[in-house]
Amino acid sequence: MRDFSNIKIGVLGGGQLGKMLYQEATKLGVQLNFLEKDGSFPATQICKQFVKGDFKNYDDVIRFGREMDVITIEIEAVNTDALRELEKMGKQVYPQASIIELIKDKGDQKEFYVLNDIPTSPFFTAESKDNILEGIEDGTIAYPFVQKARRDGYDGKGVAVIHTAADLSKVMDTPSIIEDKVDIDKEISVIACRDQEGVTVTFPIVEMEFHPTANLVEFLKSPTTLSDEIQEKAKKIALEIIESMGLIGILAIELFVTKDGEILVNEVAPRPHNSGHQTIEGNYTSQYGQLIRILARLPLGDPSLICPSVMINILGAEGHTGTAVYDGIEKAMETPGVYVHLYGKEHTKPFRKMGHATILASDLDTAVERANFVKANLNVIT
Predict the structure, then answer these.
(1) Residue pLDDT, tens place only, 274-295
(2) Where in the chain are the domains?
(3) Spatial distance between the Cα atoms of 10 and 34, rounded to a whole number of angstroms
(4) 20 to 30 A from 134, CA-CA: which of 183, 222, 301, 331?
(5) Cβ-count burial of 272 within 10 angstroms (0-12 exposed, 13-18 middle, 19+ buried)?
(6) Contact 315, 354 (CB under 8 A)
(7) Per-residue model confidence (pLDDT) at position 155
(8) What gap in Å lies between CA 379 and CA 382, rounded to an integer?
(9) Positive or negative, the Cα torsion across 246, 2, 7, 271?
(10) CATH of 4-93 given 3.90.180.10, 3.10.450.50, 3.40.50.300, 3.40.50.20
C-alpha cells in the first residue's frame, strides 16, 4: 500500500485549468503546488502552496522543480530547457519536456503528423507576412486560407482566416503555417489519456461550435451525433497520436470532419482542455480526475458519460473592459441542471474567458435548449 497523498506535485501555471485541477486533487488529499507570478491567478487564489516565480524562467522552474516529485503543466508556454534538466535529475515530468516542445510549435506538430501518417490538412510554412504575400502573388497560396502562428497562439489568438484580398490586413507578420480552408461539416474533440504503464482510454467525442470572430469554443455538445463509424475512426486517430508521441498524461485532440466524411487532425494540447470542462459533472471521471490519477500513479478512471451535457464558455462581453459584473447569473442558476464555474478573474475584457457553465439533462435537445437560455441571459459586463 502506498500513501499517494504525500507525493509533491508541481504545476507550472496557475490559471483556471490549474484551479480545476486543484479542486479535483483535494478529493484525494493530493498535494498540488503552483509556480505563478502572484496570488491573483485563479489557482493561486485558492491554493496556498504556490511559489512566486515565472514558468518561462529557467532558474525559477529549476528551483521549483527541485522540491517536487512530479511536475506537470497547465499551459504549454513553459521553459522546456529547465524541464529537460529536471528530467535528468530524475524528476518525473508529465507530459515529457520533448513532447511539450514539439506541441508548442504548430509547424513541428504538422510535420509529426505527416511523418507518422496521421491525417491532417495540407500545409506549408511561412517565415513572414512578405512570404505569404509572395505566395499569393505567385499562386502558391489560394483563397480562402488559414494562417496560424507557429507559437504562442491560444484562445483564438494567433489565427487569421483570409477569405479574399480584402482580409489581407489580418495577416500576421510572424512565422506561421498556412492551410487551405477546410470544408468542415463538424469540429470535434477527443481527449486521450495514457499512464506510465502505457494503458490508454479516450473520453467520449464532443462536438464544438466556435464564435465566428473570436475563434473561441462557444458551444460544446456531448454526446456527438456522429455515426459510430466516424467516432471509432476519430478515437483510433487520437490513440495513434498519443501512442506515437509516447506521451504520459492527457492529450486533447481537435479534429475536423469534412463534408466528405474525412477526418483531419487540427491541433492538440498536452493538458486539460476547454473541450473537456463538461466532464466535471457530465462524466464518471473528469479530465482533471484522470490527470490526477496519472500523476499519482492510480488506475485510470471510467470516462463514460453520466448523461448528456452541453458546455458554454462565459466570455467577457464586447464593449466592456474593467471590473467584472455577472449580469443575469441568478436566471442562469435557477435553471435546472446548470452548473456555473466562475474562474475568479476580477477584470473582464471582450471575449476573455471568465468562466464556463455545464448544463446537464436527460436528453441532448433539452440540454441545448437550457444552454441557449443561459447563453442569452448570463453576460459579463462592467
Answers:
(1) 999 999 999 999 999 999 999 9
(2) 4-93, 122-180, 184-381
(3) 6
(4) 183
(5) buried
(6) yes
(7) 67
(8) 10
(9) positive
(10) 3.40.50.20
Look at residue 154 in the predicted model and tell me its pLDDT.
Answer: 72
Domain 184-381 has what CATH class?
alpha beta
- Spans of the chain below 50 pLDDT: none
| Cα–Cα distance measured from residue 212 to residue 372, given in angstroms and rounded to the nearest whole number | 16
- pLDDT value at position 275? 95
Task: Give me the pLDDT at residue 216, please.
Answer: 74
The pLDDT score that the predictor gives to residue 2 is 62
Place of cell 456527438: 224
Q: How does pLDDT run across 41-50, given as a tens digit for each residue?
A: 999 999 988 9
Class of domain 122-180: alpha beta
